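quick one, 330 residues, struct below
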Amino acid sequence: MKKILLIGTGGTIASEMTEGGLTPELTTEQLLSQVPAISGICGVECIQLLNLDSTNITPGHWRMMARCVRTHYGEYDGFVITHGTDTMAYTAAALSYLIQGSPKPIVLTGAQKPIGFDSTDSKVNLMDAFRCAAEDLPGVSIVFNNRVILGTRAKKTRSKSFQAFSSINYPDLGVLRDGVLLRYIRQACREAPVFFDRLDTKVALLKLVPGVDRGLADYLLERNDALIIESFGVGGLPEDSGLYDCVRDAMAAGRTVVLTTQVENEGSDLGVYHVGHALKNDLGVLEAYDMTTEAVVAKLMWILGQTRQREEIVRLFYTPVAQDILWPAG
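---
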């Protein structure tokens, strides 16, 4: 029987109703006691690392989770991390960069309703997560609503329903049917994982709206090492906004700028329209292509934690990690 470590970080799954609303209060042991059938799948040991609403999760907590897995990696066959749904996709992406090539499963799960509620998805999700953690499912994934989603491809696309997460621009890794994992894709892995611990958290995100000018971008670039701009459609900047000059000046000053799209599916393609062509061909901004915004944020934090050399930043950004980017950068 496989030996799995349950790492608790809080979230709705561990919440109880208080006068101030739902608040994470249950421990990992209390969660396990609600699903005794897990003992028939694997042996489980528990660590209560955090007990936070995922709105309060920070990059520092991502590093804590990665260090916890690293410390205990040799002792267990797999890992389940219970986590709030609101920022779970960010955490899954971040762990994909902090723990690369793991041959052992690192599974994140949570719930849209607390485990103590009658109409909860917690028990099924937790059971499924342990099923996957006891299988040959390398790398970081999210298991939720009977689906297995690659950590770098997950996005929360529904705020209330049980089908909370979607896999963006990439197929599901598998599904669970009647307690059985039907795996479609097996992630590539190394013989042993490569762990990282450094992140540069000075990465900002700007979502364009019609009529925007450069003021906000200037403000963010003065205070950060990188700016991700969520543009419209396949990508570009409004021509009368001053944003082109802002980006040019920031890059000349050593900042990193990435263009991505607000559209969830199919990715960016800056070369298509005049409003994006010069950004790509003259300025050489980085382009996210088919990456999720969550993955872009986490990857930039990881890259800038390793290097400040422009050529190396570009190389690492366009080097796929856990299938985070497929569109050819050339």
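Residues 18 and 222 are 41 Å apart (CA to CA).
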